[in-house]
Amino acid sequence: MPAHAPHPSSTPRPLAERVRRAADIAPNSLTINGVEKVFGNTRAVDGASLHVPAGAIVALLGPSGCGKTTLLRCVAGLEKPDAGEIWLGATPVRTGDLEIPAERRGVGMVFQDWALFPHVSVARNIGFGLSRRERRSELVDELLALVGLDGLGDRPPETLSGGQQQRVALARALAHEPSAILLDEPFSNLDASFRGQIRRDVRELMRDLGITALFVTHDQEEAFELGDEVAVMIDGVVEQQAEPFDLYERPCSRAVAEFVGEATILPGHANGLRAQTAFGLVPLLDPAHGPVQVVVRPERIELTAGDDGIVVNREFYGHDASYCVRLPAGLELTARALGAPKLNVGDRAALRYVGPPAACFPAASASGFGRGTAAEASQPAAGAPPAGNTQQPPCDS
Q: Helices 15-25 and 192-209, interaxial angle, to 10°?
């Protein structure tokens, strides 16, 4: 062998191959059981549990202040939980008195603000924490190529675009060939004009590498686009984890129904697989009897000229239009229709449910978190017993 040729065993494998191999060998599923974290009088995380299968991407979706970033930091080892267990595959990193330090957990972290060092180059940012030998090897160049930043290693981070800085942060998280990666609102600081493309690029990269990923977001569109599964967190508790379609169609609670997409929560009176509501019969996913709250999505209401109610608000978005219709009893419903607006404010309209069977909850247990864009329909349904003297808030744009 020529003297100048590297020994085969010392030649670095392509990074993507090494990360895939690490993912195959390492116990890289992620399980969180009953994690709690209290700050003073605030219970930030309240017995949260979720599971990320090996090689899957799970989105942790929730409103601001629900505890999702605190839970992510507990997984990373940056916060110490007050209770609960965290496992990477069959290896515990937090159980009882056991608390593995962050640097020994084998997870990578991408922070919301990316946390790049402004006084050093892109290459040195990526190589932070690597050994001198690794920094001098081809590893950093491989990482730059992997995230599409070839030739930019000598640049200061401040000279890069937001999307490029985000990729630097991702490359740094991948440098240690982690068995799982955690991302905290990774796209929130990007311009909306190219946020979607960056999301697609990152999703393609993560799936190509086959690495386990848990990322935090408050954006439903982002969660549905990237997540193989979505876990909804409200008030420190993971309320439901499911594939995006199931989460939208079968929310486990009113809290989830109102947070995931627009929804009108209609009072109704159920008799088996259908419920009588203020604008007619709605088919139900599961049999129910008596007073219920029915989840009605705006795109599943057909709106035509008629005498059921009056259009009190209309908004046109280009691809579709949203209408708020007030019924005689004071109930207000939101409906969406494709194309140019067909009705104007002040026009009378007819409503008909045209969607698949809807989820519903017993009226007595339907209380919960409410989002501003969801209207709560609290008037009694036609033919149903009186439901109490509550007011109906107006449609919210």
A: 60
The answer for residues whose C-beta is within 8 angstroms of residue 109's C-beta and 6 or more apart is: 76, 78, 173, 181, 182, 183, 184
Q: What element of type H or E holds 86?
A: strand 83-88
**Nearest in space to 229 (alpha carbons), one of 35, 33, 34, 56:** 56
Q: What is the pLDDT along the chain (397 residues), one digit of tens a residue?
A: 334 333 333 333 455 555 554 444 444 899 999 999 999 999 999 999 999 999 999 999 999 999 999 999 999 999 999 999 999 999 999 998 899 999 899 898 888 766 777 788 888 778 786 666 666 667 787 888 888 888 888 788 787 887 788 788 888 888 878 889 999 988 877 767 677 778 888 888 888 888 899 999 999 999 999 999 999 999 999 999 999 999 999 999 999 999 998 998 999 999 999 999 988 899 999 999 999 999 999 999 999 999 999 999 999 998 899 999 998 878 889 999 988 888 999 999 999 999 999 999 998 655 444 333 333 443 444 444 333 333 334 455 4
CA distance 235 to 67: 7
Q: How far does CA 106 lie from the centroid of its chain?
A: 23
Could you tell me which of 84, 30, 50, 47 has the C-alpha nearest to residue 241? 50
User: Measured between alpha carbons, how far is 243 from 233 in angstroms, rounded to an integer?
Assistant: 15
Structural tokens at position 321: 């239009």
Say if CB 173 and CB 109 are below 8 A apart: yes
Nearest Cα neighbor of 248 from 195, 297, 182, 176 is 297
Which amino acid would we find at residue 179? S
Residue 275 and residue 282: Cα distance in Å, rounded? 5
Q: For residue 294, give the nearest of 377, 201, 232 by alpha carbon.
A: 377
Rounded to two decimals, the pTM is 0.79
Asked whether 349 and 325 are in contact (CB, 8 A), the reply is yes
- Phi, psi at 85, each rounded to 5°: -130, 145
Cβ 319 vs Cβ 299: under 8 Å: no
